Amino acid sequence: MRATTICLINQKGGCGKSSTCFHLAGSYARKGRSVLLIDADPQGSLSQGFFGSAVTENLPASETLAALFDDDFFLGSPETLAVPTHIDRVSIVRANQTLARHNTPTPELAGLTQYALREFLESLTGYDLVLIDCPPNLYQCSWNAMLAADFVVIPVPPEDFGTQGLRVVHQAVVNAHRLNPELDLLGHVVTRYDARLLVHQSYEKKLRGLYGETMLDTVIPEASAFKVSLACRQPVSCYSPASKAAALTDRLADELMERIGRQAGQQNVA
Ligand SMILES: Nc1ncnc2c1ncn2[C@@H]1O[C@H](COP(=O)(O)OP(=O)(O)OP(=O)(O)O)[C@@H](O)[C@H]1O
Ligand SMILES: [Mg+2]
After folding, report:
1. How far is residue 203 from each of residues 157, 200, 221, 249, 269, measured CA to CA in Å?
2. What is the mean pLDDT of residues 178-205?
3. Residue 266 and residue 184: Cα distance in Å, rounded?
4. 196 partner at 20 to 30 Å CA-CA among 35, 76, 204, 213?
5. 161 pLDDT exceeds 60?
6. DSSP E strands: which ranges in 110-235?
7. CA-to-CA distance for 29 and 42, rounded, in angstroms?
8. Predicted confidence band at 27 (pLDDT cuts at 50, 70, 90)?
9. How confident is the model at residue 72 (pLDDT cuts 50, 70, 90)?
10. Cα 178 to averaged position of ligand 1 atoms, centre (Å)
11. Does 223 sit in the ligand 1 pocket, CB within 6 Å?
């Protein structure tokens, strides 16, 4: 059976896409799910989170996601790109700077290249869940992710610059839906929330007013536990399972699954 596939997108940089993917992977793995992470960002943040910057930067393109976009590479079995991490039940297709030249700004004109990731994922078995981490733009890598995914999650920091540009992101989801009718917006998640800041409180309220039910209930706070566990190359629910950060990540993981269950139920009824 094809794994449930979720991509995290937002053209806003630093809003917590990679961090959310990284920590969610740990939560799902601890709950017994087999997770494949796709690093679809030429920055390679997610890959560096597990393998460090030196290893990641030195990977040949043929061992990264870039291989999917380059006819010069013979792709053996798809499993050779998806490598296990040191976290049980978490594997990853890594990325680095070699992906940058494939991340073209007009993906709709790229013919079959638009479906490279989709085709790759369709040939993979053995995973319950795929999480795709996208770069801070809506170019070819994010487009490929949306054409390969079942669901989109949009991390949003509750600030002015964080909430600007969401209309463009929503339009991109609508455009991708035309080519991938299975794609659904699973929700917006408020990230990097600082409850002490009035501006965060007021933007969170504003977001809930604007986007209503698509806003996920769980809010991911700005917390040092996320940074510390990442520095130790472990998702927070593995490194610091008793922390509030781990509890909230676990809650977000559950909420996403509940929504997926609900949306699947609605589709069945329809
Ligand atoms: N909830 C959080 N609490 C504390 N630090 C966080 C949190 N979320 C993200 N960070 C830190 O903020 C930085 C940016 O986060 P992250 O890389 O996840 O954002 P991103 O959206 O993936 O960025 P980019 O758009 O560049 O890919 C990282 O150093 C990360 O560790
Ligand atoms: Mg990132």
Report:
1. 9, 5, 14, 21, 35
2. 97
3. 12
4. 213
5. yes
6. 129-133, 151-156, 184-190
7. 25
8. very high
9. confident
10. 30
11. yes
| Structural contact between residues 134 and 7, judged by C-beta atoms closer than 8 angstroms | yes
Q: Does 166 sit in the ligand 1 pocket, CB within 6 Å? A: no
For ligand 1, whether the C-beta of 226 sits within 6 Å is yes
Domain architecture of the chain: domains with CATH: 4-269 (3.40.50.300)
* Paired tokens of 241: 């399972």
Q: Which atom of ligand 1 is nearest to the CA of 136?
A: 25
Q: Which two tokens stand for residue 133?
A: 């981490």
Q: Cβ distance 190 to 220 under 8 Å?
A: yes
17 CB less than 6 Å from ligand 1? yes
Tell me what pLDDT residue 270 has: 45
> CB-based contacts of 253: which residues, under 8 Å, 6+ apart?
24, 27, 28, 31
